[in-house]
UniProtKB/TrEMBL annotation:
Transmembrane segments: none annotated. Gene3D superfamilies: Flagellar FlhF biosynthesis protein, N domain (1.20.120.1380), P-loop containing nucleotide triphosphate hydrolases (3.40.50.300). InterPro entries: AAA+_ATPase, FlhF, FlhF__GTPase_dom, P-loop_NTPase, SRP54_GTPase_dom. The keyword Isomerase does not apply. This is Flagellar biosynthesis protein FlhF. Belongs to the GTP-binding SRP family. It comes from Paenibacillus beijingensis.
Length: 479
C-alpha cells in the first residue's frame, strides 16, 4: 500500500501528479483546506491537502524496490491478542475495526472477527476490504484518480495506514510528510526572505532620504538639477554617494563650479563605455525601427546624405513602411533628391529580393513601419524583416520628447531581440535630457546619434558623452 500527501492550490491540480506517481488505479482518500507559509502565523496562503493511495500491487509508475524477507515469529495467544508493546514493541493491527467499517459500507466485504494470526493474513484481510470498498464505489470513478465516499475513505485510509506500518519491516521510501516538509519549508523561507528584502529596501530608502536632506547646499543644488532633467532617483543617489565617498566635502562642499566639474567627469566616465559612435566602415545594412512619429525616415535621409557627401559611399533605400499613408512617397522624395535606388517590400521574402537588387550598393538603409512596440507581437513581426549578419545592425529611434518610462518600455522588447544601439531625435524640442542617461545606465542601451532639427543632412551628429553631460548639467553659474 502506497499513501502520498500532496499540497496544491486546487484539488484538480493534484490529479496529474497522482496519476503520474501512483498510476490510474490510485484513489483519493481525503481532502482538506490548510494554510502554509506566512510570517509569525499571519498571511498564510490557503492550500488544499490531498491524500491519495494505491495498492502495492497496483499500476504504479515505478516498481517498488526489493524488500528484505519479513521475519517470522509465533502468533500471539488469545490472552495477548492485542499484541502489547512487551512483545517486540510493534503497534497492534486493528484489522477487525477496518474490516467492520468496510463491511458497513460494502455488505459483501469479508469481516475478520478473530484477529490476525499472521502478518500475511492481516495483509490479505486488508487487501480484501480495500478491494471491496473500491468495487462498491466503481460508479464514482473518473479517468485517473477516483474519489471515494467518506465512509469507505475512512476505512480505506485506516487500513492503508495499518498496512504501511505492519507489512514493511524495512522502509523502502520516504514518507509523505518527509517529502512535503521540504517544499513547505522552502516556501516559508522564500516568503520570509522576500519580506526581509522589502524591509531592507524600505530602510535604505529612509536612510537615503535623510542623507539627502542633510546634503550641503551645492550638492543639494546638483541633486535638484538632475531630478529636473528627469534623471532617475537611483542614479542621482548613486552619483551623490560616489561624490561624497571620493571627495571629503565639508559643510560648504566646495564651490558650485567644482561640484559640477566633479559630477560631469564622473558621469562621463560612466557613459563613455556605452557610446557606440557612428556607423562603422564594415557595416553594409542598417535597419531603423521605432514607434510612430519619432523621425525614422528623416533620420535615414540625414545619415544617407552624410554617407554620400562626406564618406563617398553608394547608398540604397529599402522600405517596408506600407502602413502609413504617403510613407513610401516621403522616402522616395529623399531617394530622388539624393539619386539613390529605392525598393519597397511587403513581406520577409520580398526583403531578400530587394537586397539582391541592391547588391552593388556599399550601404543599404531599411525603413520599417512605426507600430506600438510595447507589444511583443509587433516586435516579432518587424524582427522577421531584419538581418542579423555581422555586416548589419539595427538602430532603435526614440524621440526625446517622450517620457523616460515610455522609452524604457519600448526598448525592453528590442533588447530581448539583440538591439542595443539607439538614435535620439528631437533634442531641439525639449529641455530635459535625462532619458538618455537612464536608458544607457539602466537598460544598457548604446547612444549612437543625436538629432536636433529637420535640416538634411546637417541636424544630426554622432553621440559624444562629454558634450551630452555638459548639456545635461547646464552651466553652474546659471543655477
Amino acid at each position: 500500500m502506497r499513501v502520498k500527501r500532496y499540497i496544491v492550490n486546487k484539488v484538480p491540480d493534484a490529479l496529474p501528479m497522482i496519476r503520474s506517481e501512483l498510476g490510474k488505479e490510485a484513489v483519493i482518500l481525503n481532502t482538506k483546506e490548510i494554510k502554509v507559509g506566512g510570517f509569525l502565523g499571519l498571511f498564510g496562503k490557503k492550500k488544499m491537502e490531498v491524500i491519495a493511495a494505491v495498492e502495492s500491487g497496483g499500476a504504479a509508475k515505478e516498481p517498488a524496490p526489493e524488500r528484505a524477507p519479513a521475519p517470522s515469529f509465533t502468533p500471539p495467544s488469545r490472552k495477548t491478542a492485542g499484541w502489547s508493546n512487551e512483545q517486540g514493541g510493534a503497534a497492534p493491527i486493528h484489522a477487525r475495526s477496518a474490516a467492520a467499517t468496510s463491511t458497513a459500507y460494502a455488505p459483501t466485504a469479508v469481516s475478520n472477527t478473530q484477529g490476525p494470526t499472521s502478518i500475511s493474513g492481516a495483509h490479505g484481510s486488508i487487501k480484501q476490504a480495500v478491494t471491496t470498498s473500491r468495487d462498491a464505489v466503481a460508479t464514482l470513478e473518473v479517468p485517473g484518480p477516483r474519489a471515494v465516499p467518506p465512509a469507505a475513505a475512512s476505512a480505506y485510509y485506516t487500513a492503508a495506514k495499518q498496512a504501511s506500518v505492519s507489512v514493511d519491516p524495512v522502509p523502502a521510501e520516504k514518507t509523505a510528510s518527509e517529502e512535503d516538509n521540504f517544499p513547505v519549508a522552502g516556501e516559508k523561507e522564500e516568503q520570509l526572505l522576500s519580506e526581509i528584502r522589502d524591509m531592507k529596501s524600505w530602510i535604505r530608502q529612509l536612510t537615503r532620504q535623510y542623507a539627502e536632506q542633510a546634503l550641503p547646499d551645492n550638492l543639494q543644488a546638483l541633486r535638484e538639477r538632475l531630478l529636473q532633467q528627469e534623471v532617475s532617483a537611483d542614479l542621482v543617489s548613486r552619483l551623490l554617494e560616489e561624490l561624497q565617498a571620493h571627495h571629503l566635502f565639508g559643510e560648504a562642499a566646495g564651490s558650485r563650479r567644482e561640484i559640477w566639474q566633479l559630477a560631469g567627469g564622473m558621469l562621463t566616465e560612466w557613459l563613455e563605455p556605452l557610446t557606440a559612435g557612428g556607423i562603422a566602415a564594415n557595416i553594409r545594412t542598417i535597419h531603423f525601427v521605432g514607434p510612430t512619429g519619432v523621425g525614422k525616415t528623416t533620420t535615414i535621409a540625414k545619415l544617407a546624405a552624410e554617407q554620400i557627401l562626406k564618406q563617398g559611399r553608394k547608398v540604397g533605400f529599402v522600405t517596408s513602411d506600407t502602413y502609413r499613408i504617403a510613407a513610401v512617397d516621403q522616402l522616395r522624395t529623399y531617394a530622388n533628391i539624393l539619386n539613390v535606388p529605392l525598393e519597397v517590400v511587403f513581406s520577409p521574402a520580398e526583403a531578400s529580393r530587394a537586397f539582391r537588387q541592391l547588391e552593388d550598393r556599399d550601404l543599404i538603409f531599411m525603413d520599417t513601419a512605426g507600430r506600438n512596440y510595447r507589444s511583443e507581437l509587433h516586435v516579432s513581426e518587424v524582427s522577421s524583416l531584419l538581418s542579423f549578419e555581422q555586416d548589419s545592425e539595427t538602430l532603435l529611434v526614440l524621440s526625446l520628447t517622450g517620457k523616460s518610462k515610455d522609452m524604457a518600455d519600448v526598448a525592453q522588447p528590442f533588447i530581448r531581440h539583440g538591439v542595443r544601439k539607439v538614435v535620439f531625435t528631437k533634442m531641439d524640442e525639449t529641455s530635459q535630457y535625462g532619458a538618455i542617461l537612464n536608458l544607457a545606465m539602466e537598460q544598457g542601451m548604446m547612444p549612437t546619434y543625436i538629432g536636433f532639427g529637420q535640416t538634411v543632412p546637417d541636424d544630426i551628429e554622432p553621440f559624444r558623452a562629454a558634450s551630452y553631460i555638459e548639456r545635461l548639467l547646464g552651466d553652474a553659474a546659471d543655477e
